[in-house]
Specification:
The chain is of the alpha+beta class and 705 residues long. Helix content is 38%, strand content 16%. It has a 6-stranded antiparallel sheet, covered by helices on one side. Strands 6-7-8-9-13-14 form a 6-stranded antiparallel sheet.
Amino acid sequence: MRWLVGWSSVAASFGTVGAVGAPGTEHEGDTVQPVGAQLLWGDPDPLWAVGDWRPDEVRTVSIDGFTRLAVLGCCGATDEELRVGLFAARGGALRHLTAWPGSYTAVVQTGRRVTVAGDLAGARPVFYTPWANGTAYATAALPLADLIEAQLDIGHLAALLACPDVPEALRDGTPYAGVKRIPPGHALVLREGSREITGYEPVASLAVAAPQLDPERAVDGVRDALVEAVRARLTAPRHAPETPLPDPGPVPGMGPAERRARRRGVPVPGIGSDLSGGSASATLALLAAGLPGLPGTVLGHGTGAGERLLAVTFNDLAAGARARERDLTPELERAGAIAANPRLHHIVVPGAEEALPYADLESGPLTDEPGPSLVTAERARLRLQSGSADHLVGNGARQVLDAHPARLADLLIDRRRRHILRPATALAKAEGTSPTSLLVPLTVYRAARRLARTPYRSGIEEAAVRLTHRDVAETSTGALDASLEALTWSRPGPAARWLTGEALAEVSIRLQESALRPASSQRPGEARARAALARHAYDHRVFEQAAEVRSQRLHAPFLDNQVVRACRALPETLRVQPGARAAILRAVLSGAGIHDLPAGWGAATAHTTSTATAQAGIRAALDTLLNLFDAPLLADAGLIEARVVRKALRAAAEGEPVPLDGLADLTSTELWLRRLISRRGTCWTGSAAPRQRAVAAGVPHRRSL
């Protein structure tokens, strides 16, 4: 895990340590500094980079000793552009710090003012906490929890399980009491210890629609942003694995691709991409393979020096025969057709029982926060270990390109009723031929009109009442049910049905308190779409940490600031049309000179395969899961009743309709708690460093919320 950390405080409380070998800040006469840190600049407001950062991922520019900029991550800006951005930030133009291609965190120091800019999606979050008459900040919450010896915030864990995609329930909290998170699209500004959170992105008004671009211009903006995002990865220096495994040589019945797939543990040098057969990963793979190369380097970039892009396809052998024939075979065929491009080197990674969800739960790493990817980390790691040192993934495409169902209410607010007809008709077709399917358009219209006429405060209060009465929707049986459930200001998560009444009451109180605050200025569809993107970025960050492969970097260009901005400029009338994402990505590739796409491009991926795979994983790991919930820490905290969860696990293993996403949330949270409690050590060193690990006292027994 890589992170940066620093702090700002009143000058009277800190001194300066001049020794080069002992950088840090004096606190009560002793030095406190993070373990294994690289000092970027020193007192009185120090900044460190901690972890296995590559040399090109840590860049600093300065005008003088008190005006400097640090950029950590993959940033496509030149040194001159960084210097111009530093001048702009010194004058208060923070948006300039977020306008470069790539995914990074920018920190600016101008005198005693320190500014840390978060990203728009939330994949690069910023955390802060009061400490030593000042404020400490970091891009990870656990180091700050160590610094202040924080305990668990049980209320936040309850909200994370009950309403994972509702900002009003989560607020600015983290699983650690006292450690806060700045919202996406905001920056943390510190002046001698005092802090201010300011937004750098304009927010659309609730009453007046923002001016919309012409659809063609908007799609061109998405194309330019994606091309620059991919180019930023291609132009970065290449990195080879630290300890490459030797090729075993010719093996009877095994070709070079199969031998490479067997060399698990270390990625291959160069750049690669997922190629699942979906439109998002295929777009990134084709863009990376088709961009012009840069001669003069060892391996070259793109195809300019003869380098081929490594495309990795995962073949799920554990899925049932019917599911494979119906869902997986067309995707594998599309991936194979795309991989016929001579600029791609295609490998297929098979995954059997060892790649099922819930496999090998005991050996995972401790992540900064809990997330559902903890139960599928081994499955993802199997695929990524066969990838490249720099690997592109299509995560986030659905959230930034697709229209959230609640956007239909925004269209009604703007009096664009006719644009609701096509998505409503598509839902009717998805429901199949039945007498009730004729009423689907009217049902959708009524739900959208109800949301458009529901004020923000009333919507949040209604969600609080639903939690109090345990009014949790049953398992969705189709796209229509999911869409109707999403046409609300707030809705409970899939794990809410298994929480105790006390836990739901605590989350309900959080929602009621949020309803009393000033109303959101966003429209319901825009607000729900941003919340869904923030939740996905949160999960993606946990996924990166849970499935991390040594010497590998995962790149998700769809979560970059510039790509998110370009996608937000797409007109709502274009977003809500069926097949909009595939059409937009087809236009992106066409504008980049790529026209030959396989049949079935952009076909929606059925969820039947993932459901069958999750059920198979629960069946295979049922004994382990029952032992995990025999005496769970979540029950000690008063969040669940263990017997209820064990009953749900047995029902899921038998194939009954159970919310599998909810079980994944509960299992991952329980796993994360156990790994956190069993953790030893601290992120800090020095004679005055905190000696107590975070959550040292453990989970309170049967805490009453």
